[in-house]
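Revision sheet: structure tokens.
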Amino acid sequence: MAKKTGRYSGYIRPFSYAIDLIILNLFAWLILPYNFQLISFHLFVSLAWIIIATNIGFYEVYRYTKVSEIFSKIIKQYFLFFIVSFAYVGYFEKLSDTSKLVQFVTYSLFLISFAKLFIYYFLRKYRVVFGGNFRRVVIVGNGKSVDQLKTFFNDNPDYGYKLINVFDLVQNKKKQIEECLDFVMKQKIDEIYCALSDLNNTEVNKFIDFTDNNLKILKFLPDNKELFSRNLIYDYYDYIPIISIRNVPLDEVPNKIIKRIFDIIFSLLIIVGLLSWLTPILAILIRLESKGPIFFKQKRNGLNYDEFYCYKFRSMRLNKIADLYQVSKNDPRITKIGKFIRKTSIDELPQFFNVLLGDMSVVGPRPHMVSHTEMYARRIDKFMVRHFIKPGITGLAQTKGFRGEVETDKDIIFRVKYDIFYLENWSLFLDLKIIFITIINAIKGEDKAY
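Predicted:
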């Protein structure tokens, strides 16, 4: 599940990447001889650094990460990067004085480690002195583990957690749980911590459903006697074990960067290679059949439920109910050219501009019009989970036949299930597979593409 952060927290890790790569390339330029001052070498060390860092979790440093764990990551990064650099020198270049290579790697890692620890301790100080970068939390339950977590939150403000309330569930458990959920919404709580020993399966599921549907983070204090069938994630706050119920690969910065680079390259190829000449042709055909703009824009809900304008080629005559009623089969509002571009999904192509702007991704859960999002959020369990990642032009649910008009609740329920599977199991290969199937389906034509 997405980690809610302070106002600027989302920039910290990309900033760390940038600083480290600058340091790395600067020392390569200052220390290594002239024959290493090639773009190919700088690209190699940058790429090698990122690949090693991704595999050992060098940038996986959170507010609760121990300093000893940070040093462990630094040591692993140092030795692996040194081996890869030495292998490159031995294979591609001749270096008479290997001490230069040792100096390059050592000085780079020393300064990078200093910067890493400086940021870590600066943020801890910033939270205490300025009260920023905090997450508002509540604890549900009682017992030794709850008392330990209360003490941890209260005694360690530098970790960035502000304990707002504790619901001990000692008296009238059902009422207290309802009060807790209401409190979380009214007080804009970011995270809920539940002691599993005080909750039965029904109550656990109630908290899971509530947090999924309201974009809150849920974590558990484990009971050693409990057995879990889910693929749970364990973290430690000091020595207190904490369980998270969902892992979202796109929460990881390297994955975000990979997906964003892919989105930019793919959208540029479509915009330059296809839309540059197709748009004028469609503009003429659309205007010849009906008056109005070439493009149709509509508010949709995207990442974190934020609203954005989604663009399409206009396929309907101008009407006042476009933002209220979804298109149905044989809809009289659809024009002749509109029927063709909808059948072939050409009407969706302007959304590549949304991708380029960062509102959407090529692959992701399909965004709904705002009025429908609000309706489904009330009716369909876990519908809001799809807003933990960017919406897409196409998605896994669409390749499985759940696209277009929602005729029954079954359609939207299965769409949500596939969307959740996608966000929990994302990979670039899965994106490529979905794009390939989408292209094949567009060529063949789909029954629900109307």
